[in-house]
Amino acid sequence: MLAMKQMTARLAIFDIDGTLCDTFDVDDECFCEAATEALNAPVALSPWEGSPHLTDAGIAEWLWNQYLKRSPTSEELQTLGDAYESALCRELQHAPHRFSVIRGVPSLLKRLFTAKWDIAIATGGWSRLARLKLAAARIPEELLLASSDDSPDRSEIFHLAQERAAKRRGESYAKTVLIGDGISDVRVAAANGWCLLGVGKGDRAERLLAEGATVVLEDFLDLSRVLDLFEHCSRPEERKCSENG
Predict the structure, then answer these.
(1) DSSP state at residue 193
(2) Are strands 216-217 and 175-180 parallel, antiparallel or unpaired?
(3) Which of 5, 29, 127, 241 is the most buried (most CB within 10 A)?
(4) b/e sequence 197-220, b meaning 16+ C-beta within 10 Å
């Protein structure tokens, strides 16, 4: 009887804003500016927690229903995306420091590759805007495997990234680690049975821990510790997720 092949492949799936790139604030500001222009109504900075889906497509759908009581047309989404991209490009030109990579990311990515981890990037943002931020941070754009272009649902986006990575590799993964900065990332990891490394500090870190994350990093500078956490990190505590979900 032939022995079953043991799965050994490992995948790290990274979010972008607040995880790979320090773009959380500039991204929110530019989205609000673009939405204000597209809706011709003031859209204030918000944690977007009223939206069922915390993705560009999901938030756009939510905003249009809030302001206009209907879904956006394809032309309106194009207008929103164009204004959003213009605002980000303007900020990148005048304040490139707002698009800095999170400390330690370049070294971490190199070490993960060396340690035979596969790497994928998934984001709730639209693809063209995600690629703009990755290029600014000098992170390989080909690592981006799923975005809000694929679905308004964040869980579906990250699951699709894993599926595409597995198809590219030609085998399933024995271990998947999601690295993200939002409570929605904790929920995605818990729902899929993945391990999680949270990224954040201050109030954001506290929210991740309250949602069920077992470890939260401010950055990736302590490379030895971070690599050890990749090897031994755990799944989010689903009890906490259910209490806050």
Answers:
(1) T
(2) unpaired
(3) 241
(4) bbbbeeebbebbbebbbbebbeeb
What's the CATH class of domain 10-22+100-244? alpha beta
The verdict on pTM exceeding 0.90 is yes
Reduce the DSSP state of residue 117 to 3 states and report it. strand
pLDDT in tens, 166-177: 999 999 999 999
Amino acid at 219: D
Burial 142-177 (b: 16+ CB within 10 A, else e): ebbbbbbebbbbbbbbbbbbbeebbeeeeeebebbb
What does DSSP assign to residue 103?
A: T
* CATH class of the domain whose range is 24-97: mainly alpha
Distance between CA atoms of 58 and 64, rounded to whole angstroms? Answer: 10
Tokens of 90: 């303007």
pLDDT in tens, 185-238: 999 999 999 999 999 999 999 999 999 999 999 999 999 999 999 999 989 975
Spatial distance between the Cα atoms of 90 and 193, rounded to a whole number of angstroms: 40
Q: 10-14 and 144-146: which strand pairing?
A: unpaired
From-to residues of CATH 1.10.150 in the chain: 24-97
SS3 category, 175: strand
CA triple 205-56-71, angle to 5 deg: 135
Of 104, 89, 132, 94, the C-alpha closest to 20 is: 104
